[in-house]
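pinned: reference chain
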Amino acid sequence: MKGMKKFLTIILFSFFAITLVACGTSPLEGTPTGENFGSFGTYDNLKEYLLEYYDDENDNYYTAEGALTTTAMDGVDFDSQEDATTETRDYSKTNNQVDGVQESDRILTDGYKIYILSGNKFFIVDADTLNIDYEFEFMEDNADIYSYGYLDDMYLYDNKIILTSYVYSYQEIQIEDCKNTTTTAPAPAISDESDDDVLDESGSEDYYYDPCIAYDYSYGTKVIVLDVEDTLDVTLFRELYFDSAHLVNTRMIDEQMYLVLDNYMIRYSFSEELYVPRYMDSAVSNDLQELSADNIFFMPRDVGSFGYLVLASFDVTSNEEVNVKAYLGNTWQMYMSLNNLYTIISRWSYDEDTQRSSYSTFVVRFEIENGELVYKAIGEIEGSPLNQFSMDEYDGVFRIATTGYSYTDLETDNWEWNIDNFLFCLDATADDDMTELSVLTGLGKPGETIYSVRFSNETAYVVTFQQIDPLYKLDLSDPENPVILGELEEEGVSDYLHVISDDLMIGIGRQAVVEEWGTRFTGVKVALYNTSGDVPINLETYLVEGEYSYTNVKWDHKSFVYFTPEDEDFTYVAVPIYEYFEDYYGYSQSLYVFKITHDGDLELLSKLSHMEEQEEGNYAYYDSIERAVMIENYIYTVSYSSIKAFDIDNNFVEVNSQVLNQNYYSVWGYPGTDAVTVETVD
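pinned: its C-alpha cells
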C-alpha cells in the first residue's frame, strides 16, 4: 500500500513537471554573481523579481494569510527493554543504489531490534522475542489546531531514529465584526459538531456551520529525530518542519541527512504577506522563521517552472542549525552520489523553424561542500529519465539514460511522432555548464521505450520494450565513445535490474507473449543472467503465472530484499508478488524467497505468506507482506497487520508472530462467495 502511494505520488509530480513551461524572465540585474546564477540578497529584490510574473490586476488564487506554527512532539512514553548486547549479527541492509549513500526505508534492523513503519505507527520490535518494545503513533496534539499526517520513511544512525512525515493542518479563525448566526450549507463544511448533522428535504446530508468562522490551512514536511540510546527514557532529540513543502526524496551520508523538497507557495499567485519559504528547526526555535534572502537563488533558464526547490541538510547527531537554501525551480526526481546531488526537471519545447515539439530535461548539479549542497552547474539533454536508476556518476562523469518524445507538424491535423532512446555522458566536474561528452543512440527498436537501467562502474545495462525485451550491455569505459557490446532478445520485460556479482545479474519483471492484436503479459518473471560476455545469457527464468499478477518492485525497489551471508557463496533474494487468478477474482500475495548461487543457479526456496486461507480461498488484503529483513538464519516479514519470523535453516517454518495493527478489513474471495469482515486479535 505504501509503495503504491509513493508510486502514484511520483506519477503526479511527473505530470506537473511535464506540463510546465519555462518562465523565461532574464536574471535580476545587480546580483552579486552575474547573469546566470545568484542570491537575491534582499527581500525587495526577490519581490521585484516575482512581480514580473504576476499582474497586480489579475485575480489570484487564494493564498492563506497565516500559516500554523508547529509544536514540538511531546508525550513520548515508551516501555523499557534490556540493554542490547555489544555482539554483532549479520543482517540484510536497505536496498541502496549507491554504496555509502543511504536511502530511507520502512523497515530497518541493527541485528537485534527491528524498526518498522506500519500504517501510521512506528514500532521497535525485539528480533528474538518479537515483543514490541516501542510503539508510537504520529499525531499532532493541539487543542486549537486540527492536524493530520502520515509517517513516510525513516533512517537509523547510531542511536538516532529519523522519521520523515507529511503534515496537513487547519485551525478556526474568528471573523471580526461578523453577525454570529447559525445556518446550514452542503458538505463539506467543517465542524466538530458531528452529532448535529441534518438531512434536507432531498435527503442529502447538510452540516451546521458558523459563518463567522474561517479556516486557515497549512501543510508541510516534518522530520522527527528520536534518541533511543536510553531505552528507559526515549526522547525527542530534534524536530524540523518545512512549511508548504512536499518531500521529493532524502539521502544520508554518514551522519549528514539531505532533504529535497518542492515548495509551490508562489506557483499560481503572489502574496506580499507570504512569498518567502519558511521552516522550523527546534535546535533554534519552535517557531517558523523565514529563509534569509541571501539563501534564496535564481538559476539559468529558471529550469522550467515557478516554485522553490528547497535543499536542506543537517547532522542528525548534533543540534547545529539546519542549512537551508531555496532555488527558483523544482524537481520531480533526483540522484545522489558521494560527491554531488542531481535534480531534474523535464518539459516540452517547440521550435518554430522546424515546427518540431520535443521533450527535454534539465539536469542541475549541486556539489557537497562540508555537508552543504552548493549549486555548481546545469545541463540540458533530450528526453526524460525513467527513474533514479537511469542516472549514475562514475569517475567524474554523469551518465543518464532517457527516452525522448518528439512530433513534427507536417500539415494541418497531420503529425509525425518519434520515440528515441539515448544514453548521455556529461562532465560532472565543470562549473556553470554540464558539458556533453557524448550521446549514444540506437537503443531499442521503433516504438520501444526504456523500462529499466542499471549502471555498474564502466558498464551499463538498458532494457527497452514494446513487444520483446532487448537487454543491452554497454561499455562506458571511454565516456566520449560509449559502445553497445551486445543485446539479448526475449519475451517479456525486466522492470528492475540488480547486480548480484561481477558476472551475475537478476531481472524482476513481467513475462509476455506477442499476439495479433499486441502484447499480453502472462505473469511475473524472475530471470537470472550471466553478464560475463558481451551478450547477456539467460541462465534461468522463474515464472509466476497470472495475467494480472504483479510485483511492487517495479516502482518500489526497497521491497526487493537481498542478503549474502558472511563467507557464503550464495545470495538470498526475496520478492513480494501479488497473484490474481480465476478470471481476476482470486487473489493472494506471498514473499517468494530465492537462493542464487554465485556459480549461476536460481532456486525457489519458499513462498511466505501472512494470508491465512479462509473458507473457499478468501484472503485478507491487509495481510499483504510489504517489507522483509533477514538476520542470521531468520527472515522477518511485515504486513500492515503483523510481523512474522521464519527459520531459514528449518525449511522456513514459522517460529513466531506479533500483531502490529488491530483493524477491521474486507476480505476478497472467489466468485459466488460473500465478503466477510475479520478482526485481528491478540
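why pinned: Helices lie at 2-19, 43-51. The chain has two helices and 47 strands.
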